[in-house]
Amino acid sequence: MLRPFQVRRQASQPLVCLRCAVRYRHRSSSKDSRRPVTSRILKDRSTAEIRRRFVPGRACRTSLEAQPLWDSNSLPPHEPPPLPRPDLPSIRERLRQWEIDNANAYKPVDVNSDVPEPGHTVNRVIHPNYVEFQEVSETDGLDDYRESNFERFDLVDVGDSRGFLLPGDLVELSSLGNRRQELAIFVRDLGMQTQFYTMTGRWLHRTNNSVKFFVPGFVEPKELDAIRPYLPDGEVDTSLEGRLQSFQDSVALEIGKPLILKMTNFWNQADATFQSHAQQLDNAHKTVADIFKFRYASLDEIATKVLGNTINRQDDGKYPWAVLYAVHRTLLKDDIGFRALPHGSYQRTNVQYEINGSSEVDAIRRVVSWVRKYVEIKLSNHASETKLAASEVVLFANHARKLIDISRNNRQFTSHGMIGPSLRTVEPGERFRAGVPGEAFTANDLYFIRFLESWACLGSFSTHSTLNGVGSAILRAIDRYENVSLDRTTGWTCLQELGALAPWETTAGFDLRLPYTGRQDAIEHRLHPRISRMAGGVVPDKLKALRKDWLDTPVFCVDDEAAHEIDDGFSLESTDNPNEYWVHVHSADPAALLDPAGKVAQFAESLAETIYLPDRMIPMLVPDWAHANVSLAPDMRCLTFSAKMNLQGELLESKIQPGILRNVQYLTPATFQDIASCADVHIAKDNFVVGNHIDTKTVSRLLKTSDQFSEAEREQMKIIHTITGARASLMESKGAITAGVRETDISVSFDGFPWAKPKSPSHSHQYFGDPTIRLAVAKTADDKVLEERAINAVGILMLLAGEVAATWCKERNIPIPYRITPLNPDKQHPYEFFLKNIKHAAKPIPIDTMMNYFSTIGKVQPSTVPGPHAALGMEAFAKVTSPMRRYCDMLAHFQIESALLEEARTGQSLVGSTSHHYLALSKARLDEILPRIAARERQIGRSKVTANRIWAIQLVLRAWKFGEFELPRPLEFTVRSVNPDTNTAGGVVTKMMIGGNMRIPSWASAEDIEIGDRFEVEIDDINTYTTTIVFKALKSLESEAEIAAKKLALAAEQ
Hints:
GO biological process, one term: mRNA catabolic process
GO molecular function: 3'-5'-RNA exonuclease activity; RNA binding
Organism: Marssonina brunnea f. sp. multigermtubi (strain MB_m1) (Marssonina leaf spot fungus)
Structural class: alpha+beta
Protein name: RNB domain-containing protein
Pfam family, one: RNB
């Protein structure tokens, strides 16, 4: 709870813990106990008073204040009279003198950081931390940066919707384990570190500015001028990161007093809100949770539901920030009901919260009560064997041991986050993916399995939660996991041995809450709504009367041979000017057949986009319906984005029109490049494989080879290649950067059997057989990828369509999900950085320069207000070419088609119009949707990366531990980062492009290792659950810098 800061700071009323007080009373009444020492705290207490407060850093809701154990006018029993004390200075005076005498000699103690590794926990009860305010960093995707390019545009100020901090913003910082919360004001960005000034008058540097609560513009930036001269003006040593700095090293309190008072007043206002609305806030979960399903909501949405009209709103219709902070703190003290999602949303003021279903919360509480009862019986001096045998924990543990022993007859237990491969070899064509059902789980078993899933799979508890101990207690009761940590990794492995998880399962499905993942009622176990005009929201073609018939115009659909959703194609149309052509990008048009408020569109919104994982694909639209009614094919509807261009790549004119395609031709990217560029684009790859299943790809359509196209069609593809190549050069001249990324591809085969929903989730399963995993890595020679660098003509065409759509909507003031680069006045403008550091620099551009460049651009974010996309060099951009796979693309189609219908109805252009009555979705509705969609898109992106890495690590584990193939020799490790605190170096094994950590050997030191150093290593440990590989250094190799110097010397000699 929030506790008034003045009370906390002054400590005017000492506190005594109830447990200590009871213990003291027990000791003083014991005949054999020693006489207690006089307690001035207890002696000075008056009437007992219990108050409920938001107490920073306390897990309990109540604190005992002024609890006397005897009359204040008398001494406790057996207490001798106090001895006279000599006349000494007060304790404060003595402390001040000690500080003067000893402060300069103070040396900070170098202790290992108590930050838990992924998948591990830390006991914050016996290892509390009140001064360390570190955060687990989150992955920042470089959205659209592989083809990053721009010219000088006026970037957009998005106000409170920004995803970055500015000087004067107020944030909440939490110490490790959430033992303490501290309000702080963001002061400035110092390169890799950010600087804060806290409400206790101390400063703090962090390498990560991810926060869960944020008040924009809390104070004016000029109000920070008084404290800046007293704060470090550069990065501090890593030993000081994430730690509150002591008072002698901080700003004098009198100088920072105005800022401290403002933060204190804010804190007290939030505390007052809780005091006056405690009952409503305490029941927040019951108010907003669904019985079964997960729900997602912003802080303002939760506050509206919980507080309603009991608190007056501001003139803008929003609650005061202090009120929202009180709600935020209430949510996060609930260990299992709410979870603030990682900052994936583009708006810091719209952090999304996951609300667990009531059924999961009740199931967790039930198991917790069972475990506590079991522990109490075990610790009882008169433990009853009958009671113990009847305990729910014992009943589950007995059955679990039996199932685990059965599993170990076929698969070896490992401490690496997954059990070993099957000892039984499956026959060709045998369906091993679904497993063989075995014994049924009892109702009692399912409660414990659901708890283990909440703990190890869904991440319902933080790494500092006391509920982690409940999971460990269950594993200890099972008594099959000796000499291993009883942590989440072992919990995950236990579920595999129980037959509740497939041995190859990854956490990605749970992270994304995919249907049929686990046994939680909270996960909605359905894939798609039924398609019908009434229930599903499917309607007749809304644009039927406006469609242009493209007749015999050849439309080229370029996609991989295994692609199922064909959602874009392109064509070329000549003009009277031989130097100019109309380039048409044809997109599938599901929006014309769907009701924006129908169930099909609602499901698409909840999924956000089609999810592609190595072992599973979850389509956004019903596959059969989409293939029959939407996927591009002859006589299929389309929405066409047309650009009139010259051979120099310049955009001259644009338009949008609905149509019907007749002459659709399918080909692969390799065939297109073979025709258009007349070059062999084969990429040489190293293939690493475990398993023996043949990875066959099912072709979903009739693909044409290069010799099956007419000369006219081949010429059209060459012209398109020329135009897109010229446009790429034009974009590069404005600052385009093409990063050479070494390609890797991970594929998984179950002998041709696709994923299917489980048929008997209430039974234990055994799995005989294992998938084939293939890791393909582009080969290198002389540090260059062995591939023909061909212009990605198709990718440039898709960007062109997005520019056409965004410009068309911008001219008509239509709100759609634009992708923009927000203005950050606290950073250098990207164009200035480009001119100074990149435009005239020698190629290739150093990686650190590129990372600094990306940092100046920041996160690209969706917005209903148009603005430039600095990373693509466009004044406006929106994604529109994949409405079958991305919900944001579908939203843009809904809006565009509404405008097309309105222009057809009125016979007038909407250019310059400010009326939006005709739109399918209002701007307010889009502003409500976009934060959730943005967060979901980034979450999906992170989960895809995680899934790919887990499958790659499974491949390495099966080679290293079980010898299914021989790993490359030698393993050469290239350093990409150095951490002196943990004495490790991060890097990548270049042959397989798999990253990991190398323990710095005794014959080297962290200070001497530099980025680019190379070592021969061997694998020391693997954990597929935490996605970690630990390497042991064997010997040092030539560094990248030494190799480059030799090449330069050799070139000079030649």
